Amino acid sequence: MEEDRSSSTSGSLPTVADRDEAVERLREENARLQAELAQLRSYHDGTPDEAAWDAEMRRGIVYADGSSSTSSLSAGRLLAQLSGISKERMKAGRIPDSDAFDYLPRPSGDAAKLEADFVRWGYCLVADAMSPEQVRAQVDRLKEQARAERQLESAIMTSRNERAQLVNNLVLKGAVFRDAVEFKESAAQRGPLVDELLTKVMGKGFGLGCAHGSIVHQGGGLQELHIDQGGMPMPYPPFPFGSLIIWCYTEFNLAAGSTYLVPGSHRTAGGASSFHDGADLLRLVDGEPGIVAVCAPPGTCILTDTRILHCGGRRTAPGTRYAMRCHYNRYFMRALHEQSTANVHVPDDVYEVLSPRLKQMMGITVNNPEPIGELP
């Protein structure tokens, strides 16, 4: 066939489809367009429905669980199905170390691996986040502060047998803690990596909910399973509201009273939260790997998604477990943690030494980096 050089096509001219083929192609295209139109109508049909509005107005202010203090469905009723589970499984010896599963996160310094672990399992372990010297300096200061608070009878003992102590608001209680909270290399040698990961979790300008010391002696430490954004109303978006990080000052494992968690309990592969009305949380706990005790050497930093099921673990070994726990949240939200109100009670002498970033994290400066002003 001779080439038509006036055509824009290179090579042979396309052949014209026969009638049946053209009809079939048009039918397929029509079906596709009909499906897209139906999907768009399901979002919004563009026409007001006055009858529907009248019915909604007669119902009044009613949300997922009726009128309540939260005005929405909370995760509390879902978590109730797990009441007593951590104690039951611990006593029955049914909580293994995370190291028993070769596919669960291990301490790493590779950013891509850490991100992958966080996405798949809801937590990751930053290896050697603190040097032995940095750990020692913070433990020494934590012990000193804890002892002083006990002597003043102001200590916060978090177990009935006084086998665990919480040292609240470490930002006000030592430069070594302040520097770690804002990820300075002087206090945490891999602080910038932790900072980078948290920024990917929550975006720039994230805030600080709490920074407290955790001291657990033999026989203390056990909590109920919970999530750290349980106070936020559902439905949850396909991302966490914050991140709890744990600086491990001493060895973390089952006997040491490590944090228990349920890997992968935070979301589905498609991104949807595991917490929704009617969710069967027992299925997550009873599946594999179920509840595990996180294994990590001293100096490790554990980053968690606030949607992951977790709790403090019972220490059965002699000795004491030391750690610092910091809760961070998206910049536009008030902190989710009950200790967060301490952020606004800052003595003048401490306020003077706080960095601008720490003031922003604590919510004691105006947090509006790009205010919207009036047009001229």
Question: Care to describe what's here?
Answer:
The chain is an alpha+beta fold and 376 residues long. The chain has helices spanning 19-43, 50-59, 76-79, 85-91, 111-121, 132-151, 175-181, 191-202, 281-286, 348-351, 356-362, and strands at residues 123-126, 156-157, 164-167, 207-217, 242-248, 260-261, 292-293, 301-305, 310-311, 320-329. The protein has a 7-stranded antiparallel sheet. It has a 3-stranded antiparallel sheet with strand order 7-6-9, with no helix packed on it. The radius of gyration is 27 Å and the shape is globular.
Keywords:
376 residues; alpha+beta; 7-stranded antiparallel sheet; 3-stranded antiparallel sheet; 11 helices; 10 strands; 30% helix; disordered N terminus
Helix vs. strand class: alpha+beta
Strands side by side in the biggest sheet: 1-8-5-10-4-3-2
The span between the termini is: 69 Å
Strand coverage percent: 5-15%
Q: State Rg.
A: 27 Å
Mean pLDDT: 85
- Total helical segments: 11
Largest sheet: 7 strands, antiparallel
Order of helices and strands: HHHHHEHEEHHEEEHEEEEHH
